[in-house]
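User: My collaborator sent over this chain with a note saying "see what the structure looks like." That's all I know about it. Can you take a look?
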Amino acid sequence: MEDIFYNLQAEPFRLSPDHRFCYDHKCYAKARAYMAYAFMRAEGFVMITGRPGTGKTTLIGELIESLADENVKTANLVCTQLHADDLLKVAAYDFGVDHRIVEKGELLQHLGLLLRRWHREGSRALLIVDEAQDLSESAMEELRLLTNIQENGKPLLQIFLLGQPELRDLVLSPALEQVHQRIVAASHLNALEQEETEAYIIHRLNKVGWQGDPALSKAIYPLIHKFSEGIPRRINLICSRLFLHGTVEQRHQLGAAELREVIEELQAENLAAGTELSREDFEVEDEFEPFSPATVAPPSPEDSSANETGMDEPPQGASPQTSEPTEAEVKPYLHAVGDDVVLEFDTATGNQISDTEKKKMT
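Assistant: Without extra context I'll predict from the sequence alone. Here is the result:
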């Protein structure tokens, strides 16, 4: 509806994750490169954590899309506190094991045969487990056992764990030390900073052919950031409702007054749980700049640090951008885990660096 009124090619602020709109803010490119590096190792666990709506699913979706020609067999699970045996069944069935097989030993046997056949055919298997923070310790241990399936010493299954920050606490628990040791890379997705929020909004609009209609006041960007707390999914919700409001009211300029109406509606409907805003927040002067698609350019990958986000979609047929970590970025260690865990491994040998080796290098 709003895309028609404003002559846009598509809806710019859809709520569902879509890697085609991916916005490379300052940490996303580096995180994606680490994920690609870990994927090339074809073993163990990869862990991605972040608050809901920060872009975990988007990051994985973009990676999988970039591997479309790599003969990768994937299974996607969303965990709602699955027990260990149920987790094994769901994973095996999603890979294609016959649903009539229910006994654990037989399931493992058939899954192993399937993985070995794929390996001989030149394919590899990837299991993606979403909402993994809800897994029990026994279920996590069951996943670790799946990574033991090998052919001539080569692991046949790699597992990506996606979850909220509690997942890191789970993996760091003493009972799951063996799981922790098998994490080859991990990344924690932080929220967008204020300037990134503005760049993110303009990025999405540019992707759908925005030509300055509606005109957006510079005053709304700090307010959107404050209310959304920099969470991309919340930004999408606010902007989607703002554009809908503009369409219904037939407004071709959207400023602080329009944004205030939208946020008050969202608060009344309990559809947003962001920071509460006062009337004083909206007592700002609107500033509508001349339209330029390049008004805000996304930060370059060189400015990256160690967090990431992104929830976007680009024009039909656009190919996702990929970037590999440079030698300088990954030597002598690869710091590939978020705020609490740092896993280090030598990029020349691919082996994890022991505590003794670390002391020699410092």
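A starting point for your reply to your collaborator: The beta strands are 45-50, 72-78, 124-130, 150-151, 154-155, 157-163, 183-189, 215-216, 253-254.
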